[in-house]
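Input sequence (191 aa), recorded before submission:
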Amino acid sequence: MTDRPDPRGRLQLALLAAIFFGPLLVAAWLYYGGEALQPEGRANHGVLLEPFVNVDTEVDGAPLAPLHEDAWLLLYAYDGPCETECREGLYTTRQLRRMLGREMDRLGRIFLHGPVAPDTVFLAAEHEGLVALQDGGLAELISTKTPAGAQPGGYYLIDPMGNLVMYFPPDLAPKDIVADLKRLLKLSRIG
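Predicted structure, token format:
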């Protein structure tokens, strides 16, 4: 009589292998091929500008170097004459800074305007501490880093090392911008 292997033994071995290797195969599939099941993986509302560019090295004679040494900078870029839309953008930068509460001293405000100079009396009266400047090189760098199809008049975040970090569209809710700013300031050991 010949000894044949018991088919139940093979079945048990196959089940044991499935119990061990099954979760590994499912995990590998989810990691490498299951994009639909992966979480988005971001919590920010603004657009992260990757790869980061350093404003000081990219723009010769950048006027921001002394401004960002000890603080983050919120830069509002508007190329046209500073009328209603522009003034609302400047108001938003002021309110965003105030909404940071105790952390507001860690954020400076910059207004990058176009060839038409803004009303300096208005800026002095309504926007104390705001630095207004015109710099063609900086404006060009900003325009190359702005996401495609973005509206004019957006907000940019520059870290204390001079890196252009984030873009916030002008129609983004201020509470969402503040949430990003608070998260960054909480995690940041600089500025």
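Checked by second reader. The first strand starts at residue 47 and ends at 54.
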